Amino acid sequence: MKTVFRPLICSLALILSVSVLTLGQSTQVPSQQASSAIRSVPSGSKMKFRGVVISRDADNFTIRDRTRQDYIVRITDDTSIKTHGGFLKSGKRYPVTDILRGLIVEVEGRGDTQGQLVADKIRFNESDMRAAVTADSRVAPVEANQERIAGQIDELYAVAAEARAEANNANERISSLDDYDMQEQVSVTFRVNSAVLSPEAKQQLDDFAAKASTSKAYMIEIAGHTDSTGGDAKNFRLSQERAEAVVHYLAINHKIPLRRFVTPMGYGKTEAVADNSTASGRAQNRRVDVRMMLNRGMTQQRTTTSSTAPTRP
After folding, report:
1. Buried b vs exposed e over 238-256: b needs ≥16 C-beta within 10 Å?
2. Which fold has domain 178-299?
3. Which of 23, 90, 243, 311 could covalently link to 264 via disulfide, CB atoms 3.0 to 4.6 Å apart?
4. Which residues pair with 83 in a beta bridge?
5. Which of the pair, 75 or 309, is modelled with greater confidence?
6. Which residues contact 211 (CB under 8 A, 6 or more apart)?
7. C-alpha to C-alpha distance for 150 and 156, rounded to whole angstroms
């Protein structure tokens, strides 16, 4: 418990200090100062350093080292992500979607032409991953009220105090929901007690993937659900299997990189959209919701560029 608690408190303290500094300067300092804190990595230069993940996007994340220098790390399909040690010191492999805000990592790679570090290896301790995952599940309700939190710093300190008291929830993942806009949404349904995609569901996912293939700076959110029949444990397991079946189909059949997916989640019967007392209602609740979210900042940048481009006579 002591091993897990220490990285939890350190991670949360760092995130809170970054949040307070950002909010306190937002009315006085232009956005140019925020971007100046990012250190550029020389192109082709090999680097290895350790720090805390302070932000995460679809293809990259920002890490802050012990000297409070920030670097942008780019993840590719060739990036090796594992824990330290393990059997024969091979470590346990993790998917790219598990690089969470607040996770303490060791990164090794080379600089690219944009000043980013292209990661060859990402390593971390198992205890730090448990701390980050625990905190990530804890703060999900807080993220839903992100706009309120921006004006109520006291609420962040209340979360920190509760995390210290419980000794297992001390890492805050702050990522504004307003950074992404929902572009496309589809819900595919399943037969009773089944996580197998029907031909109709596959067609819906094919259409969804075709739209995703023409988009940039997007992430895909996958949520599995069940009807109210059966026990809670079984429904949570079945809803997770349905969500993973959709991820597997999109990744294998349409080559969508795993880094584009938010970690799929099964909600069991907790989020019904129809009346479970009727057969038609239960059929609607046996579903997986698939949403494509576009980065608002990238969308606005493309819009501004096109509107200011000179017109030819």
Report:
1. bbbbbbbbbbebbbeeeeb
2. 60s Ribosomal Protein L30; Chain: A; (3.30.1330)
3. 243
4. 124
5. 75
6. 183, 184, 292
7. 9
φ/ψ (deg, to 5) at 237: -65, -45
Would you say residue 125 has pLDDT above 70?
yes
Output the average pLDDT for the chain: 78
Q: What's the pTM?
A: 0.42
- Could you tell me how many helices (H) and strands (E) the chain has, helices first? 10, 10
Tell me if domain 2-166 and domain 178-299 are identical in fold.
no
- In sequence order, the β-bridge partners of residue 249 are none
Task: List CB contacts of 173: < 8 A, sequence separation 6 or more.
Answer: 15, 100, 101, 102, 132, 135, 136, 139, 143
Domain ranges across the chain:
2-166, 178-299
**Secondary-structure class of domain 2-166 per CATH:** mainly beta
Query: What is the pLDDT confidence band of residue 28, given thresholds at 50, 70 and 90?
Result: very low
Cβ contacts of residue 95 below 8 Å, gap of 6+?
Answer: 81, 258
